[in-house]
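User: Hello, beginner here. Can you help me understand these amino acid letters and fold codes? It all follows right here:
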Amino acid sequence: MATEIELKYSLLENVNFETAAPTNKIISHLLNSDDIPFSYQKKQLSNSYFDTPNLTLRQHKIALRTRGTICADEIECFEQTIKTSGTVIAGLHQRPEYNVDIDNDKPILALFPKSIWQPNIDCQQLQQQIVELFSTNFTRHTWLVDIGNAQVEIAFDSGEIVCQGFEQKPAIYEIELELVNGDAQALFILAKLLFSQLSLRPGQLTKAARGYALYHESLRVNKKETYAGKKTVESAESVSLAAITFPKNTKVNNALNYGVEYILTLLQTCVDSYVEAPLLTTLSKVRELLTLLRQGFWLFDDLLTDQEKVLRSELSYFIRTLHWVDNALYIELLTSKQSSYQKVISVNKELISKLGLGQSSYPSETQVLAILHSERFNNLQLDLLVLLLKKNSIDEQDESNLPSLVKFSEKHLANSINGLIHELTKLPQSEGFESAQYSSTKHYLTAHGLLIRALLTTSWFGCLFVVQENKTVKKFTAPWFDIKQGISELQSLHVLQQKLLHLPKPEKKLALWLANKSENLITALDQSKAKAITMKPYWS
């Protein structure tokens, strides 16, 4: 039995021009340019995955595979493999793996060590029940690399996943870096080298996991269930900004680790969803998760080194890069053919063009995908992974001077909400010829940052407090979330009002509608504010 340690990355397809060098040529060139010795090989691999019809192995977190390999000498050899449950952190996979040579592509379970199987599993009965569920067929280019005191295999796989009787064949287009021996630091060095020339993103799902998903989908289709359009919706809504849940008795100096790992996993899943279906709602969640990560670095600032604090600046860079998303969402709603706004204010194509509300006002899907697969974004995620591994390997420090996590969180929750209430209870001040509406708008927009930080602090620490009658996290935050939504819409209306000022010809109808809409929003915000500031904190 060996423990597989590898980094997985998905490649962005069709990112290069047709004249660009193939991926395998790029990798060889990178290694040669850095004088890194390697041996290269190309193989054709066919893999069959087995389980019982009711997925007995899957339920026990076991993956069973047979692999046929055709090498350069045209001789096909076979191997059966079992992989058991392991860990996945930001694209780093660690799993126990058992390999046995066999004569063909049919697995023989008795050849595996008996220690693999749980006592309640009858291996002979299981042998009779297993069937092939799906297969993966791909070309594998491998580079066995010697780097420092370590040896790493880089594999570039290009092919497809096939489920019998099902037309859909998801593409395989990914890179794996597997540690053969030596220090795992070699994986990170080579990954950063690949980032410089390839459009990558961390891979959360294995080929097997994607194959099982395809198998489930084929069962649904064969049952003639209607799923038209559902996949896109699920991709957009499968990841939401949920509260971080800490294991029992988590210490202050370990809480950041749990939070970062949890959020980073959600972030990478969310990026995958955007690649599959480029929706602004999904991209907004990417930005929210980046902001939630940065909030953790603010909250635990005293426990970080100066070098680790640099990651906070990198998070801020990408948050700023995506700052336009919320406005774009509102504009998309405003200009949608299904929008009730069009009937109210007659936002026709000519006016949309005048206000600069078209798609050209914001980065294109291609530009966004380039950001999410960029060298800088990949380096940020890899540095966060290295931070997690580093902190997980350090012995727990003396905690005699550290408060409990609950006391620590109470302090930050109180500070964030008190600062927010102080800002919101200031009277809006008009300057010069400013209207009362404009002053109120500035008042709420100024408080927006404090509100976001207060809600993010609740996302980090809300789970630590026991739910009590009439004193719950959800009840406390409900009016604050109403204010957040209202301010976001107010901000978008404010952008539109500013654009109107630069039109050569006044648009009185739209200007009146925007003013009325803003006034109504401010009234609603005032009501939500009055309710929010009287709520009793759930942590006291």
About this structure: Strands lie at 2-11, 38-51, 62-70, 76-84, 87-89, 92-102, 131-147, 150-162, 171-181, 200-202.
